[in-house]
């Protein structure tokens, strides 16, 4: 002690900080010495103890030194900084919630190959930005040729909640794996390109919509596609669309697409979608039976 001032060592002991940290804060102007001894040693007033205690609290909250100095110098209001920081922490907590849920989903599965294990490990560790980039890259690759695709893109975009359920985390994991499958990407891209050429667009081509309208009731009633009872449904369907109906329905027949939208509904908490595959296959069977 030298009168009412403290040495840097005493200040460090009183605040629980290291001498190196106190010196750093002093060099940054966060706490300034009241005087220096003839030998050049710094001396601080007792008020520096309270100032450094406040600084330590702000550091534990994750604030940077530049921001802390502006708060201490009254250039930034503390309540505004605290609100912004709380919002940032909320975003981090949300990301951690999803990562924890995905890791739990990975732990519950049994990878069959080293490649599957590596892929699941990679997906479980993705940040929120990386998850968004993965989805964007998938949708870019399959919808690039679709005109006015923004509404379609939105209907195909997963938006996991801040605190997902285990079912939502497992659905995200499966959907991410599906979107990385080159064969699935090619199938969706081909479907999109085909329907662009025929003035239609995914995810519900006009041929599929018509199949639901005309063949759906027959399928629900248990009518066999090759029976005479199916004739009215087939006649109404063929009268309502072009001659390439069979080809268009065959191009749309991919159960993985149904699975994608089922998973999407779970992730986004949407009502379960109506699957297309059963009605497509019923209609294809009915058309083939009559062609034969």
UniProtKB/TrEMBL annotation:
Keywords: DNA-binding. This is MerR family transcriptional regulator. One of its GO terms (molecular function) is DNA binding. PANTHER family: HTH MERR-TYPE DOMAIN-CONTAINING PROTEIN, REDOX-CYCLING DRUG-SENSING TRANSCRIPTIONAL ACTIVATOR SOXR. It comes from the Bacteria. Residues 5-74 form the HTH merR-type domain. Pfam families: MerR_1. It comes from Streptomyces davaonensis (strain DSM 101723 / JCM 4913 / KCC S-0913 / 768).
């Amino acid at each position: 002690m030298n009168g009412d001032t403290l040495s840097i060592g005493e200040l460090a002991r009183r605040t629980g900080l290291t001498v190196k940290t106190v010196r750093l804060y002093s060099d940054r102007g966060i706490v300034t010495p009241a005087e220096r001894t003839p030998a050049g040693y710094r001396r601080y007033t007792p008020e520096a103890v309270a100032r450094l205690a406040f600084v330590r609290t702000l550091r534990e909250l994750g604030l940077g030194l530049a921001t802390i100095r502006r708060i201490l110098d009254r250039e930034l209001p503390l309540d505004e900084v605290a609100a912004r920081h709380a919002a940032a922490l909320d975003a981090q907590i949300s990301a951690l919630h999803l990562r924890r849920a995905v890791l739990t989903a990975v732990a519950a599965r049994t990878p069959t190959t080293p490649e599957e294990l590596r892929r699941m490990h990679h997906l479980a560790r993705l940040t929120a930005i990386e998850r968004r980039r993965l989805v964007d890259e998938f949708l870019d690759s399959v919808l690039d040729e679709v005109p006015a695709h923004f509404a379609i893109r939105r209907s195909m975009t997963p938006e996991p909640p801040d605190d997902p359920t285990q079912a939502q985390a497992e659905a995200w994991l499966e959907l991410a794996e599906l979107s990385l499958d080159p064969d699935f990407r090619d199938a969706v891209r081909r479907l999109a390109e085909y329907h662009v050429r025929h003035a239609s667009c995914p995810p519900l081509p006009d041929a599929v919509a018509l199949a639901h309208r005309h063949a759906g009731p027959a399928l629900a009633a248990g009518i066999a596609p090759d029976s005479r009872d199916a004739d009215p449904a087939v006649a109404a369907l063929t009268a309502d669309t072009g001659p390439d109906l069979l080809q268009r329905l065959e191009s749309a027949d991919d159960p993985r697409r149904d699975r994608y939208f089922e998973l999407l509904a779970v992730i986004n908490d949407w009502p379960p979608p109506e699957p297309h595959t059963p009605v497509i296959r019923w209609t294809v069977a009915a058309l083939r039976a009559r062609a034969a």
